Amino acid sequence: MTAEQTLSEILTDQMNMVSNGIDASLNEHLATMPSAPVISERTKSHIAKRVGPKSRAKYLNSKGAISLLSIEVIDLGTRISRYQYIERYREHFKSPDPEMGTAFIMHTHILRGSEIYVIMERCGSFLDFFYDLAVDLDLNPKSKLGKDLEKQFKKCFARHLRERHRIVHAHERPSVISRITAIAPEPEGEHRDLMEKVFLDAFSQIFEALTKLAPHLVDTKTGEEAIKNINDHRLKAVDRECFEMWSILLGSINKTIDSSKLLKKAQPS
């Protein structure tokens, strides 16, 4: 890892290392087995979820299943890496009108929690696939870690997942941010004064919270400096979340099978 590498480059290097390590290690183990193992119905069901009927046959054997498993590491790593762009789209998106700009902000706010949830679900499914294939290969995997990964995600990303739940379920009271992003860009008539009050109250709450939790972000001479500090903090936070998701997944992979035997090549630098 070098100082010049971007987040995407770092994660790409690591996901390739893990994918290649799993593929090489499992195939090396396969070569030592006296006969080709039978693929279980559980493993077949994992394959069926990932491959269309016309292409499925070539993956219904040990080598094919190992190949599919290693490819999925790349897919998951790429999805985790692309999570960072959710907070960067707005830096490049120029709205043709206020209505579309407001809709864009609302949708990207919803997307953040939803994407964490998708990544959590897919990582859990991958770990179940990995475990069942390891059983087929007589590797005596330690345990099925999909539920453990889910617990780690829910602890680490509690705020985002809670926000997603509040947005999806109508019986939940929406957060301050959700209420702000749902407001029309230019309310008219009798609604204007009410909306201005809602905005002022909401921003007052946000500013007060920032003053308590991160005074260095807002303790500046100008509002422009405070906005820049908050924006820089926002981007650093989303980058950190990418690393956290990847670290949780990698840790679960290495706990599934004895890393001293199979995943030496899968350790990140």
Tell me what the structure shows.
- With 269 residues, the protein is mostly helical.
- The chain has one domain (7-183, 195-264).
- Helix content is 72%, strand content 0%.
- It has twelve helices and no strands.
- The chain has helices at 7-32, 41-50, 62-82, 89-92, 98-136, 146-156, 158-168, 176-182, 191-213, 215-218, 223-256, 259-262.
- Residues 263-269 have low confidence and may be disordered.
Quick overview of this protein structure:
The protein has 269 residues and is an all-alpha fold. It has one domain (7-183, 195-264).
Q: How many E strands? A: 0
Radius of gyration: 23 Å
Unreliable runs, pLDDT <50, ≥5 residues?
A: 263-269
The fraction of residues in strands falls at under 5%
Q: What profile does the largest beta sheet have?
A: none
**Order of SSEs:** HHHHHHHHHHHH
Number of domain modules:
1
With helices defined by DSSP (H or I, 4 residues minimum), what is the helix count? 12
Q: How much helicity do the residues have?
A: over 70%
Q: How would the global form be characterised?
A: elongated
Helix vs. strand class: mainly alpha
The average pLDDT is: 83
The end-to-end distance, rounded to whole angstroms, is 7 Å
